[in-house]
Amino acid sequence: MSMAVVGMIAGMAxxxxxxxxxxxxxxxxxxxxxxxxxVGRFLEGDLDLGxxxxxxxxxxx
Length: 61
Hints:
Radius of gyration: 15 Å
Largest sheet: none
Number of helices: 4
Distance between the termini: 35 Å
Order of helices and strands: HHHH
């Protein structure tokens, strides 16, 4: 199992704690799952956070 999947499962498990809150809990589960997925990809080395914060002009070089 990849670190991205582990991170996504961890985020969704944390979000499941707030499940009983209705639609707000659904949004919480989705957000924490996405954050867990991104953190897992970063820990695997598949994602460089510098790519997310560069300006558009820097990416073309």
